[in-house]
Amino acid sequence: MQSQVDIAVPAQARSGQAPTWDVGTDTLLWTDAPAHTAHRYVPGQTDHVMGLPQQVGGAKPRSRGGLVLHLAEGIALFDAGGEQRTWLAYWARDGVEAGATMIDSKGRLWATTVGTGGWLARVTADGAASIVLPDLVAGHGIGWSPDDTRMYLSDGAARRIDVLDFDLVAGTAGDRRALCDVDGEPGGLCVDDAGRVWVAVRDRGEIHCYSPEGELERTIPLPARRPTDCCFGGPDLTDLYVTTARDGLPDPAEEDGALLVLPNIGTGTRPFAFTG
Predict the structure, then answer these.
(1) Which residues contact 170 (CB under 8 A, 6 or more apart)?
(2) Overall number of domains in the chain
(3) Is residue 275 part of a domain?
(4) What secondary structure letter does DSSP report for 205?
(5) pLDDT in tens, 31-71
(6) Nearest residue to 68 via CA among 124, 143, 139
(7) Where are the strands (E) in 109-238, listed by range?
(8) Which burial class, exposed, middle or buried, applies to 54 when counting CB atoms under 10 A from its CB (0-12, 13-18, 19+)?
(9) In angstroms, rounded to a whole number, what is the distance separating the alpha carbons of residues 190 and 3?
(10) pLDDT band at 82 (very low <50, low <70, confident <90, very high)
(11) pTM above 0.90, yes or no
(12) 30 within a domain of the structure (yes/no)
């Protein structure tokens, strides 16, 4: 069955990423990393844009109001007006850029950096940062199983989705192993309420859906050539939003760089806000 794919925002993003449904406002947060912009999309209405001083990998809601941003030089807090910035974790290093960003159900932030010497880090509300996985060149996506016993990590360099045992109370992840190989470069991912893993395949113009056992259950072709990330959103978390990129594409079409939406395609797990 052919899935409906609509343009939610004809954004012409250089490299859109990190779509995140904000349940507190019923809006979608997303970023355009090389354009140094964070976006808040009100479905069916307006896409608000906030300019930033550096590359931004992700923008997530805070339980206290405002945003937590994964910037090129680290993790920063912005107040509700987007005017006051406070560094929470500063880790600037040559050769690495902001990668994936996700919040677990206890409100901790998990982030990757992309590049030689990149890593997966955990950041708590008080700003304590710990490297969980070193030497991660292209960690493009992070997610958790509905019961919080598994953590998923898309490894673009290895063209693989990995799974790690996750301890929610302790905030630890270990025993990393392959869930499945991906025919293409996996980008950002999300998980539905049945435990299936949905991933944007960056060099194939497709969304892949894998079972909890790692079996490919569904391939959805997209009109955009370079999808980068995906998340479930909408009031009932039944719409799949997909960010895309147009940088480096010859003769980009309208869909390249747009924020796409696939209505009523499944039901996602609840997203959470950062407690800091």
Answers:
(1) none
(2) 1
(3) no
(4) T
(5) 999 999 999 999 999 999 999 989 999 999 999 899 999 99
(6) 124
(7) 109-114, 120-123, 129-133, 139-144, 150-155, 160-167, 172-181, 186-191, 197-201, 206-210, 216-221, 227-233
(8) middle
(9) 18
(10) low
(11) yes
(12) yes
Which two tokens mark 84?
A: 């006051």
Edge-first strand order for the sheet with 259-262 is 6-9, 259-262, 239-244, 227-233
Residue 37 near residue 56 (C-beta atoms within 8 A) = yes
Asked if residue 272 belongs to a domain, the reply is: no
Considering only the C-alpha atoms of the chain, give the largest distance between any 2 of them, rounded to a whole number of Å: 49
Backbone phi and psi for residue 97, each to the nearest 5 degrees, phi listed first:
-125, 165
pLDDT mean over 235-262? 97
The total of other beta-carbon atoms located within 10 Å of residue 235's CB is: 10
Alpha-carbon gap, residue 116 to 215, rounded angstroms:
30
* Whole-number Å distance between alpha carbons of 208 and 210: 7
Structure tokens at 152: 């998923």
- The domain of 232 spans 6-262
DSSP annotation of 272: -
Cα–Cα distance, 260 to 182 (Å, whole number): 22
**Following CA atoms 25, 191, 199, 246 in sequence, which dihedral angle do they give, to the nearest 10 degrees?**
0
* pLDDT given for residue 94 in this prediction: 86
Q: Write out the H or E segment, with its range, that includes residue 41.
A: strand 37-41
Q: CATH number of the domain at 204, please.
A: 2.120.10.30
102-151, pLDDT tens digit by residue?
999 999 999 999 998 899 999 999 999 999 999 999 999 999 999 999 99
CA 219 to chain centre: 19
Identify whether the C-beta of residue 263 lies closer than 8 Å to the C-beta of residue 41.
no
Question: If DSSP codes are grouped into helix, strand and coil, which group holds residue 134?
Answer: coil
Six-digit token string for 69: 């941003």
Is residue 254 a part of any domain in this protein?
yes
